[in-house]
Amino acid sequence: HLSSMRTPTAMIVGLVLCPCGLLLTLTGTLAPSWRQVSLIPNEPVDLILEQGLWDICSERQSSHDRHCSQADELGYFEELPVRVAQGLMPTSLVLTSLGLVVAALGVRCWQKEPQHLLAGIAGLVLLLPGLLSLAPASWYTHELWALPAPAGSTLVVGYSLVLSYLGSCLEILGGLALTLSFHHCCKER
């Protein structure tokens, strides 16, 4: 019969969401904008500092004059939430990549039957990096206003942090979708 030859919907969902999550998390990890600092006293009104995990950039909104590798005078990079994110975000990216390889082997669209057990294991493997990147993104957000910044400046969430959040959630949802493959293993037994 034909129904067994089709790739299960949950596997397709997992294989769509997880790479999207990986892309968003990668962008969030590399792009220097986990937090934006603006309206800094004694600085031009249109100056915005963007703080990421690896870099600090300053940009003048009027001229779009942008300079990265700014000096970290306040010890921003020494803060624990930043250090933890520097460790967990790349770890998450590596694990997601490995999970996607396992998922591709398990789903195997070019074969008649997907390997449900392998796809389910891939789902568990992909759940972990989703949680590993969600943890530092959540902690950083919680500590956003406590991390060092020039006194009297305005702090807001940067787009990199939002992308990291979204990516983590997509990886978790994709991983959960793939773990549904275990259901088939149980039915086959």
TrEMBL record:
GO CC, any one term: bicellular tight junction
Transmembrane segments: 12-34, 84-105, 117-139, 159-182
Keyword set, alphabetical order: Cell junction, Cell membrane, Membrane, Tight junction, Transmembrane, Transmembrane helix
GO molecular-function term, one example from the UniProt record: structural molecule activity
Protein localization: Cell junction, Tight junction; Cell membrane
Chief site of localization: other
Stated role: Claudins function as major constituents of the tight junction complexes that regulate the permeability of epithelia.
Family stated for the protein in its record: Belongs to the claudin family.
Name under which the protein is recorded: Claudin
Protein's organism: Anhinga rufa
